What we know:
Structural class: mainly alpha
Number of helices: 5
Helix content: over 70%
Strand content: under 5%
Number of domains: 1
Low-confidence stretches: none
Mean pLDDT: 94
Shape: elongated
Number of strands: 0
Radius of gyration: 15 Å
Distance between the termini: 22 Å
Largest sheet: none
Amino acid sequence: MNSKVFMVLRILLGLFVLVFGLNKFLEFLPAPEGMSEDAMAYFGALMNSKTMALVAVVEIVAGLALILNKFGALLALILMSVSVNAVLFHAALDQANIAGALVLLVLNIAVLFGYKDQYKALLH
């Protein structure tokens, strides 16, 4: 992958997760509309159990790591669990708001592909 394209994708992913991680604490973005009762109940349980606070911390740390290009390969791998879970949540409970989760997943896969040389030792 072209290094400039990879840098742009890495920074975009970093900004994306940094903004959404900070939003979980600061709530500066409007809440999504049209969530089903099941989705709201599940999301409420995640909030009450402080699971979303942990996700927010992971997103903030991953965002900073990707923007600063420090430990990006590790945090992109860890962030993949957040990406997959976001898509699964929206696919099962909130299809109307799945676009952001799909963008997150696609960016995460592209960044993982950009770091593929750093994962070779793990796959032998």
